[in-house]
Specification:
Elements (H helix, E strand, L loop, with lengths): L8 H22 L3 E4 L2 E4 H24 L4 H20 L3 H23 L4 H6 L7 H28 L2 H22 L1 H6 L9
Antiparallel strand pairs: 1-2
Helix pairs in contact: 1-2, 1-7, 2-3, 3-4, 4-6, 6-7
Pfam family, one: IspA
Family: Belongs to the YciB family.
Protein name: Inner membrane-spanning protein YciB
Length: 202
């Protein structure tokens, strides 16, 4: 297996966020157009979704080539984009792609929940190097993030089922990202109260 390598943070961020930004820009450009391909009409959203699949695969492959490592979250996300994006294009039905965030958050919430039932914080396994916390802090953070993921799944279902495609695209591009950022900002007191001492003892 390849050894994990560090790369320029700007390059890493560009590869992770670039496909989402490209999807958003392409959607704004093509949202009102209809394309006839092989005798079937596809609206702009479906065409952009079709283009998004190879872009996310290319960015994921580039991350792996440059860093020698992919997180489970990156792998699962790429697989679900291919599966549900592919279904949307194949069946000419945008609902499958819109359901993707719901399934991602349900899956992540379920994984964290299984760990909690076993008395473990699976979150700690992937984030311990970033946030040195005491055991109790990891458990509380995992409980909160588990509940938050389930809440995001419900919220995505409400938005795509009750609002326009354009509203959902804005929500997916900016709303969900902002919600995750706000969640971790709101955990400031937990990070302070359960931080490990400098000697590393919890």
């Amino acid at each position: 297996m390849s050894e994990k390598r560090e790369i320029n943070p700007l390059v890493k961020s560009g590869l992770e966020l670039g496909p989402v930004i490209l999807f958003f820009v392409a959607y704004l450009w093509l949202k009102d157009r209809v394309f006839t391909i092989g005798g079937t009409e596809y609206d702009g959203f479906i065409v952009v979704t079709a283009g998004f699949i190879p872009v996310i695969l290319a960015s994921t492959a580039a991350l792996w080539a440059l860093t020698g490592h992919l997180s489970r979250m990156q792998i699962v996300t790429a697989v679900l984009i291919v599966v549900f994006g592919g279904l949307s294009v194949w069946l000419n039905d945008d609902r499958f792609f819109k359901m993707k965030p719901t399934l991602i958050y349900l899956l992540f919430g379920a994984v964290l929940g299984v760990g909690l039932l076993r008395g473990q914080s699976y979150l700690r396994l992937v984030m311990e190097g970033l946030m040195p916390l005491k055991d109790e802090g990891w458990m509380k953070l995992t409980q909160r993030l588990c509940a938050f993921f389930f809440a995001l799944a419900v919220l995505n279902e409400i938005v795509w089922r009750t609002m326009t495609t354009e509203t959902w695209v804005y929500f997916k591009t900016f709303g969900l990202t902002a919600a995750l950022f706000a969640f971790f900002i709101a955990q400031g007191a937990l990070f302070r109260d359960y931080a490990l001492e400098e000697d590393g003892q919890g």
